[in-house]
Amino acid sequence: MKVSGRPQATAARGSPPRVLLCDDSAELRALFRSAIEGGGDVAVVGEVGDGDEAVRLAAEHQPEVVVLDLEMPGPLPEALLTALRRAAPGAGLVTFSGHDPAAVAGAAVSEIALHLPKTTDLAVAARAVRDLGRARTAS
Q1: Distance between CA atoms of 96 and 127, rounded to whole angstroms?
Q2: What is the C-alpha end-to-end distance of the chain, expressed in Å?
Q3: Helix or strand run (H / E) with residue 116
Q4: In what order do the strands lie in the sheet with 112-117?
Q5: Alpha helices in 8-139 (DSSP H)
Q6: Cα angle vertex 9, ends 6, 13, to 5°?
Q7: Can you tell me whether residue 139 is helix, strand or coil?
Q8: pLDDT per residue as tens digits for the range 18-60
Q9: What dihedral do alpha carbons 75, 117, 135, 91 form, nearest 10°?
Q10: DSSP 63
Q11: Which pLDDT belongs to residue 2?
């Protein structure tokens, strides 16, 4: 299955979607991980606090979903989104940020599958990420 014209990641059909969490706040990553794994149908394959490490782990794990803050150490948002797309071409990129992607991501805003403001309830955000991950492994 293709979403937004991009190839899908390579998880086996029916296996739990793999998610990479990227935010410079370890506390927020832990809270999001707890919320997302609460359903038992998602595998968090890594957590990182900077953009360079996000790109490295995305290439290594090929997750179905990458959840990222747009303001963390490392590449600027536009460069980070472009690098993540190259590293994990099948991943759905979800921004979980207090920043408007259109204002900070430039042309790379088209790489974003879903934007969730940081004011979004964590349970709602986790459900959206699980739904996107399941959709990307369904075919």
Answers
A1: 13
A2: 5
A3: strand 112-117
A4: 43-48, 18-22, 65-68, 92-97, 112-117
A5: 26-37, 51-61, 77-87, 101-104, 122-137
A6: 120
A7: coil
A8: 999 999 999 999 999 999 988 778 999 999 999 999 999 999 9
A9: 0
A10: -
A11: 24
Token code pair at residue 125: 């955000």
Q: Is 132 strand, coil or helix?
A: helix
What is the C-alpha to C-alpha distance for residues 94 and 126, in angstroms, rounded to an integer? 11
Residue 6 banded pLDDT, cuts 50, 70, 90: very low
Alpha-carbon gap, residue 67 to 116, rounded angstroms: 10
Residues in a beta bridge with 94 = 67, 114
Q: What angle do CA 107, 97, 43 make, to 5 degrees?
A: 100
Percentage of the chain lying above the pLDDT 90 cut: 75
